[in-house]
Amino acid sequence: MNNIVVSGYYGSKNAGDEAMLAAMLEVFTELDPKTKFTVISANPEDTKKRHGVDSIGWLDILAIIKTLKKSDLLLSGGGSLLQNVTSGRSLYYYLGILFLAKLLNTPVMLYAQGIGPVYGWLPRKLMKWICSRAKYITIRDAGSLSELKQLKVTKPAIKVTADPVLAIHPVAIDIGRKILAANKVLLTKPIIGICPREWRGLKHYKLTLAALADKINENFAAQIVFIPMQFPEDVKVSGKIASYMKTKPIILNDEYTTGELLSLTGNMDMLISIRLHALIFAGVMGVPMIGLSYDPKIDRFLNSIGEKAVNTLEDADVDKILHEFTQKWRNKDEFKAMNKNRLAQLRKDAYSNAETALSLLIKK
Q1: Is the Cβ–Cβ distance between 169 and 143 less than 8 Å?
Q2: Which fold has domain 174-345?
Q3: In contact, 20 and 78? CB cutoff 8 Å
Q4: Which candidate, 80, 78, 53, 67, places its Cα nearest to that of 106?
Q5: Helix (H) or strand (E) holding 358
Q6: Pairing of strands 270-273, 3-7
Q7: Measured between alpha carbons, how far is 131 from 322 in angstroms, rounded to an integer?
């Protein structure tokens, strides 16, 4: 039996990261059901309950050392762990886990990582030294490859794949329909999902989304539903946006599982999102999407499926987003077909992350 440790932003009630872990475990179970996982988590009990795997605390250094000693491989990822834009301290933490594994002679694979941006001479120097000592690196987009080249990371082997969530199977929409009905969403009228997030206390994009939601409600007789990807933070920011609206949206005020969020997304006629994994959920469930960018990872994903972010949060413009919405609304079937074809290859690429990890175990 192979023992794998997974390091990532797990146990923090972020639906995108929990979906990544769920997708990783789903693919590994299909390929090798006997593989045993231990996940480093901010909330080990929640991770055990949610994913059915062993879990240890992210600050329990003794437990991490003990687990790494008896493990065959450390997977670092997925997600944008190795960057210092959203947090300066977290980069040092994740690099520290990689360094610890190196000291204990535990092989390391960067698993579908989103790399960068990394600012500062010391963080960049540490990135180069530690990443160069991994056993294998898979990254989820071409932008991450450019970052590694700028960091002068030339070894080990590096492969561009795709975000792990793209390997997850679509789900039935029944559960989502029940959740929507319980929140008094009419299933007989168009439903537009909005997945917001707080970003640096900016107000402009919130006003833009509020005005946009009012116009969509007026022009397309559509219901606006705010979907939280990080609970309860996204509920709070949804409330702020709703307070600027003239019409009354529906705010889903609960914490949902990966399956429930996928099912909810599948019931949307269109999804407007700042959250990366909400956009990926839309892709998995065949729903047309509009992305607003606050981070290069949004642009990189949209570019990978032949689309681009309409605006950044700083320059969000109601008329420009509404124009994009109208174009996609009129050609929904065409956009669904295009995204389906593009995502088919990305799904294979996402699946290959686990295949690569298992091949490392065979070679050890």
Answers
A1: no
A2: Rossmann fold (3.40.50)
A3: yes
A4: 67
A5: helix 332-363
A6: unpaired
A7: 42
Three-state SS across 241-281?
A: HHHCCCCCCEECCCCCCHHHHHHHHHCCCEEEECCHHHHHH
Same topology, domains 3-160 and 174-345? Answer is yes
- pLDDT tens string for the chain (364 positions)? 799 999 999 999 999 999 999 999 999 999 999 999 999 999 999 999 999 999 999 999 999 999 999 999 999 998 889 999 887 899 999 999 999 999 999 999 999 999 999 999 999 999 999 999 999 999 999 999 999 999 999 999 999 999 999 999 999 999 999 999 999 999 999 999 999 999 999 999 999 999 999 999 999 999 999 999 999 999 999 999 999 999 999 999 999 999 999 999 999 999 999 999 999 999 999 999 999 999 999 999 999 888 999 999 999 999 999 999 999 999 888 888 888 888 889 999 999 999 999 999 986 6
Looking at domain 3-160, which of 3.40.50.11930, 3.20.20.140, 3.40.50.2300, 1.20.1090.10 is its CATH number?
3.40.50.11930
- At 186, list the tokens: 């009419």
Q: Report which residue type is found at 273.
A: S
* Radius of gyration over every alpha carbon of the chain, rounded to an integer in angstroms: 20
Token pair, residue 75, equals: 């997977």
Beta bridge partners of 106: none
pTM of the model: 0.92
Q: Please state the domain extents for the chain.
A: 3-160, 174-345
**Residues 266/176, Cβ–Cβ less than 8 Å:** yes
Residue with tokens 């600050």: 59
